[in-house]
Design goal:
α2 runs parallel beside α4, α5 packs across α6 and α7 crosses α9. It is built from nine helices and 16 strands. The protein has a single domain, classed as TIM Barrel, CATH 3.20.20.70. β12 and β13 form a beta hairpin.
Length: 300
Amino acid sequence: MNTNVDICGVKLKNPVMTASGTFGSGREFSELTDINKIGAVVVKGVAAVSWQGNPPPRIAEVYGGMLNSVGLQNPGVDHFIEEDIPFLRQYDTKIVVNVCGHTIDQYREVVKRLKGQDIDLLELNISCPNVDEGGMAFGTDPVMVERVVSEVKKEADRPLIVKLSPNVTDITATAKAAVSGGADALSLINTLTGMKIDVHRRAPVLYRKIGGMSGPAVKPIALRMVYEVCKCVDVPVIGMGGISNGEDALEFIMAGATAVAIGTASFVNPNAAVDTVRGIEEYMSRYGIEDISELRGIIE
Ligand SMILES: Cc1cc2nc3c(=O)[nH]c(=O)nc-3n(C[C@H](O)[C@H](O)[C@H](O)COP(=O)(O)O)c2cc1C
């Protein structure tokens, strides 16, 4: 049985990745799950310098998922290069670096600093709803998407995945803009903007009032968007949003995704990514599927 997938020339042993921001740099999960069994680890957003993130409360549980407004807290690219790359390289998995910035220059700076480093793929986060500058502000306007992607692409010496925001009317417009800007692959979805109010305190639960919604409740929306995007671009698509197990992952693959990522589910079950790999394999042996590619995009 072959579960290998190819993302822009990088071979993953299986199509399951971790979603950025939900698996730290892998260290946090290394004693709880077997990282060697995961196709790729996508690390938490890395900025040019360290970012503090937003004040608490920045996490809230909601029906079918969670809200977060973490705001891309991270120790910066130098720390990432010194500490996290050597740590992750101990494992038999691919390394995807999620890149964040407030300005185009900041994104370019991170990508420049990562030149020649021992990583496999870059993921450009132009879809975070929890920062005031950059993030989603770039990712919801197709003209801006094309501009950011083409500027960052000039510095990239690894294939560039562009992570799309679902907070748009037409996801195919931003998907096509990212590809025209030079995206080698697309990933979607980032979180959907949402809110929760504590009626007893008569105040929003999150300090920033609005945060990003993720988890099982967003899956049908994410799947619809992945399906629409796969129909309109020719680059590999990495699907995510509410995936918790093999069957969820297979829905995205049948909709056209080459790979999938597990996010919020890892907070509930640290083995969710590994369980998803096993679930895909069980499905393949049950239905006599020799190669995962036989299932990709079978939904017309
Ligand atoms: C706590 C938290 C932190 C996140 N941080 C990032 C991040 O740094 N960069 C990014 O591109 N996406 C980030 N995301 C979005 C996830 O990678 C993913 O796109 C989203 O949560 C949908 O998948 P899920 O429903 O499986 O969690 C974060 C999500 C959560 C819940």
